[in-house]
Design goal:
This protein has 19 helices and 6 strands. With 466 residues, the chain is mainly α. Helix 6 packs antiparallel against helix 7. The chain is elongated, with a radius of gyration of 31 Å. Bound molecules: arginine.
């Protein structure tokens, strides 16, 4: 209780102290906070605000503390890690030396700086996790360029696609997540240090940019009030992760559906399923279910973070302390989910025969192709063809012959069975898709190669950041 000896005094009951202390959550920023104090002290010495002797002693003690802070993490009555660090130094060196440690800085700029340092690393970790997942998806896509699969809209079988194309859809969503998260780095990578409580310090020569550089920041958060009050960089991260989780939970939902006995398109890896304590045959998709549930929790965190910041008056309020643990929680969830999903997808097996059967047993999946074909070749308005093919689709038994009969009757066109067979063949259906980005295997190979190149580029850029 370093600070309760002036304006406020006296022992505070433990249960009240614990209520307002952030010490237990500050473990995550403990080392970064020591680094921040070191950079500040070094700078105070450079500009002769403190003596070299005081500086060396404080820096020496901070180095010791840096090595041991996580091993001997404090659990006493401290408001936060910031108080503990100052207490540690004053306790070791006495107030005549240690008493200088908080000159020209406050907990407000210190905490915001430490959070940004840790967050920068965590963002890189998350980006690496996203890239790993993307690489797995791209490998799967390469394996399945020609694996036919039913595509769904409204959860009804719609048209023919390939597994590769489906994976690439998910890959591209992850690409946008990557870009969003990567884009936020620019805003996180700015130092609040030297903003002190809210209006900076009066120490001649204190150079915020120089201290920022020492700490590896690219720039400073310029306005000193903005620097200590703003947490939109946290909100942005939380929402970026929430969007990533949203994308992930959609693919997870697909996999759960695809593993249903009725479909059985996928066989989930053994380590990702669990059985029932009573029904011996069960293979429950447990990791996918937990991912789906966690994604829901993440949305909950995002809403609490938003609510916490909304209408919070300028500048620093202790409410901000409650935001930081949400950030770390969501980051941990995100990293874990990326690891689990990557493992699952790298080992998943698809039942290509089932997929093919599901595609071929339903000739109507190519009816939209047929409608386009008839419109273009025989000059019949699309809406008319659509109606006539819709009538056919209601029949219990659809054969090439009764299709051509019906078309002859209703549209007065003479379409040969061979011609129909050609159009309604699932593989031909894919090959006839001509637009950019379609599941035509030729086009998918182009998409894969393009993505392989950009993935390599992102991987090498990330390597240089860590
Ligand atoms: N524990 C606080 C936090 O995490 C540090 C800043 C406290 N500032 C203050 N004026 N009490 O945000």
């Amino acid at each position: 209780m370093l600070y309760r000896k002036g304006a406020v005094e006296g022992e505070v009951a433990g249960f009240i102290y614990n209520f307002t202390s952030s010490l237990k959550y500050d473990r995550k920023i403990a080392k970064a906070t020591v680094k921040v104090v070191m950079a500040h002290i070094e700078h105070l010495c450079e500009i002769n605000a403190i003596s070299t002797n005081v500086c060396h002693k404080i820096l020496g003690t901070l180095k010791e503390l840096y090595d041991e802070i996580l091993k001997n993490y404090p659990n006493g009555k401290f408001e936060d890690i910031h108080e503990y660090i100052e207490y540690y130094i004053v306790n070791k060196l006495g107030e005549d030396v240690g008493g200088y440690v908080n000159l020209g800085k406050s907990r407000n700029d210190q905490v915001a700086t430490a959070i940004r340092i840790v967050l920068k690393d965590e963002i890189i970790n998350i980006l690496k996790g996203v890239i790993k997942l993307q690489r797995i998806l791209l490998n799967k896509a390469k394996e399945h360029v020609e694996t036919l699969a039913p595509g769904y809209t409204h959860q009804q079988k719609a048209q023919i696609t390939t597994l590769a194309h489906h994976f690439l859809a998910f890959y591209d969503a992850l690409d946008r997540d990557y870009e969003r998260i990567h884009g936020s780095l620019k805003r996180i990578d700015a130092s609040p240090l030297g903003s002190v409580a809210m209006v900076g310090n009066t120490i001649p020569g204190y150079d915020r940019v120089r201290v920022a550089r020492k700490l590896g920041f690219s720039e400073i958060v310029e306005n000193t009030e903005d620097a200590i009050a703003s947490r939109d960089f946290i909100l942005e991260t939380i929402f970026n992760i929430a969007i990533l989780m949203n994308n992930i939970s959609r693919i997870v939902e697909d996999l759960i559906l695809w593993s249903m006995n009725e479909l059985s398109y996928v066989k989930l890896p053994e380590h990702h399923v669990a059985t029932s304590s009573i029904m011996p045959h069960k293979r429950n998709p447990v990791t996918l279910e937990i991912i789906r549930a966690r994604a829901a929790k993440v949305l909950g965190y995002a809403t609490s973070a938003y609510a916490l910041l909304k209408s919070l008056p300028y500048s620093y309020n202790l409410d901000l302390q409650e935001l930081t643990p949400i950030l770390w929680e969501i980051i941990d969830e995100c990293k874990e989910i990326l690891t689990i999903l990557s493992d699952l997808l790298s080992k998943i097996r698809f039942d290509e025969k089932k997929l093919l059967k599901s595609v071929s047993e339903n000739i109507t999946l190519c009816f939209s192709d047929l409608a386009e074909y008839i419109t273009l070749k025989y000059g019949v308005p699309f809406r008319k063809v659509h109606r006539v093919l819709g009538e056919i689709s209601k029949r219990k038994h659809i054969t090439l012959h009764n299709i051509s009969e019906h078309l002859r009757k209703k549209l007065s066109i003479n379409i040969k069975d061979r011609e129909l067979e050609e159009i309604l063949n699932p593989i031909n259906s894919l090959k006839r898709k001509s637009v950019t980005g379609s599941p035509n295997p030729k086009e998918v190979k182009v998409l894969i190669n393009k993505r392989l190149r950009s993935l390599l580029d992102k991987e090498s850029k990330l390597r240089s950041k860590s």
